[in-house]
Amino acid sequence: MNARAKPISRPRLDEDVVPFSEYRRTLSDCFARTARTHRPIVITQNGRSTSVMMSVADFESTWDEIESWREKAELSRAVTISRKQFENGECLTEEDSFDEAEKMLDKMDVDGASR
């Protein structure tokens, strides 16, 4: 995960909403502001919000955080399913479990070699 000095902040509607024409004129200032404040800029067109600009570091860090939450959610679902299967007696023996893992590893080796 990318480390950054300050977490991304919510945009301030009184400072961080910029019409497209102003955004275009002050692009370099907008770049500096997003890097300094860690707040995205909301860009409007014809009075409506259309896009959001944020620094690359904040984007990458936010993306990493989203992926981390997805992985945690997937793991949590897998644990819940495993517990239910265990409670219902739907579990493998230790030997069957290792056999299954070896098959998966063999398949990964074959798939990796064929690319």
Question: What would you note in describing this structure?
Answer:
Strand 2 and strand 3 (48-53) form a beta hairpin. The chain is elongated. The protein is built from four helices and three strands. Helices cover 60% and strands 12% of the residues. The mean pLDDT is 88. It is α+β, with helices and mostly antiparallel strands and 115 residues long. Strands 1-2-3 form a three-stranded mixed sheet. The longest helix has 32 residues, at 56-87. It has a domain at 58-113.
Topology of helices and strands:
Elements: E1 17-19, H1 20-25, H2 27-37, E2 41-45, E3 48-53, H3 56-87, H4 94-113
Parallel strand pairs: 1-2
Antiparallel strand pairs: 2-3
Task: Give me the side-by-side strand order of the main sheet.
Answer: 1-2-3
Largest sheet: 3 strands, mixed
Structural class by sheet pairing and helices: alpha+beta
Number of strands: 3
SS summary, helix count: 4
Helix content range: 55-70%
